[in-house]
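Course exercise 7: structure representation. Students receive a sequence record and must write out the corresponding structure in token form. The form below is the worked example handed out in class, using RNA polymerase sigma factor (186 residues). Read each field label carefully; the graders check that inputs and outputs are placed in the correct fields and that the protein name is recorded exactly as given.

STUDENT ID: A-19
EXERCISE PROTEIN: RNA polymerase sigma factor
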Amino acid sequence: MSGVAEIGWDPDAFERFYREHVERVQRFVARRVEDPYLAADLTADVFLAAVDASAGYREQLGTPVGWLYGIARNVVAGERRRKARELRANQRVSGRRLLTADDVGRLEERIDAEASARQLIAAMGELPEGERAALELVAVDGLSPQEAAQVLGIRVTAFRVRLHRARGRLRSQSLQLVSTPEEAIS
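STUDENT ANSWER:
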């Protein structure tokens, strides 16, 4: 047994799980947001959601990392939807727990380190949602095709088709970006 189901009721199991996965989750979030306070909040939200969902975890459906990335993806997507309600988000700032200067510094470093990944994600924004998600989970987050298929809730074969299409579209976009009138002449 992976121990994931135990994080919902065993504080020691949760602490072990948290320590094992917090850096991966922080990197996942830092690739998608630029605000260190928001990154800290979303990371905490991912683990709260994991505790709530732990009883439903099924080891035969995939790894704990894939399961946790699926939760993180849903949490980040939920935040993006809430971003439209900017006034409400500003009101939440006052209720956040205070971060130490070291916490903010570490999160800023992590956010800076993930800047190129955020640029890649922005470029991938032109892809259809399913293809973009497939490419993002493998190329940016480093998941295996099996884990990424688990995150998206699809079969591995369908995932590989999406990934192939996404790579093809990005290659053709790259060729269009590289082709300049000067290159055409030479």
